[in-house]
Amino acid sequence: NAGVMQNPRHLVRRRGQEARLRCSPMKGHSHVYWYRQLPEEGLKFMVYLQKENIIDESGMPKERFSAEFPKEGPSILRIQQVVRGDSAAYFCASSPGGGNYGYTFGSGTRLTVV
Amino acid sequence: AQRVTQPEKLLSVFKGAPVELKCNYSYSGSPELFWYVQYSRQRLQLLLRHISRESIKGFTADLNKGETSFHLKKPFAQEEDSAMYYCALASGANSKLTFGKGITLSVRP
Questions:
Q1: pLDDT tens-digit readout, B63-105
Q2: Residues 6+ apart with CB under 8 A from A95
Q3: Which chain B positions have a beta carbon within 8 Å of A42's beta carbon?
Q4: From the CA atom positions of chain A, what is the Rg in Å?
Q5: Of B25, B54, B91, B94, which to mutate for an interface test with A (greatest number of A Cβ within 10 Å)?
Q6: The dihedral of CA A102, A90, A59, A26: what is its sign?
Q7: Is A35 on the interface with B (CB under 8 A)?
Q8: Helix segments in B43-107, DSSP class H
């Protein structure tokens, strides 16, 4: 079992470009969570998805950010028209049935906006 | 709203010394608390959760509802314990985690 796979590990984008971050959950896990870690901060919840459904997006910025978890393929976190403040580490976690079991985290994608 | 506070950013101890990493929480419901660890250049890993009452790598954590604390303890620190430690609280039907800012534990030889 390869665990939670995130790619790319590092992503550099110019201001105004789009960033796409991918997350493949562990085999058998149908719950995916995205977290963002800004410098000197803890991880902040962004969105919780199950296959084809967004369950909780209360942590997502209102504009430019979107997430999906299609029936086939990885979960995608999309950031449109990136700005310098989007520079952060983005972590994906998966769970077999909600967070009470404790998540399994991916290695993260470090986004740098130049 | 729930909150997790880790009051210290860094703890540096010598090998063999006791370790206590502090965590306080604020939550109106029944909390489910976790400690996660991130070793250098590795992903975040679940260290332990309070509901299982287990000891992992010599670490224990007791939930104290009166003091709203979930401090992580180890009687004798080892160099390989050097890492970043995060306390987290699961809340709500979706069990999303609220993390503290983390603490760096440095164990010197």
A1: 999 999 999 999 999 999 999 999 999 877 667 889 999 999 9
A2: A29, A31, A33, A101, A102, A103, A104, B95
A3: 4, 6, 86, 99-102
A4: 13
A5: B94
A6: negative
A7: yes
A8: none
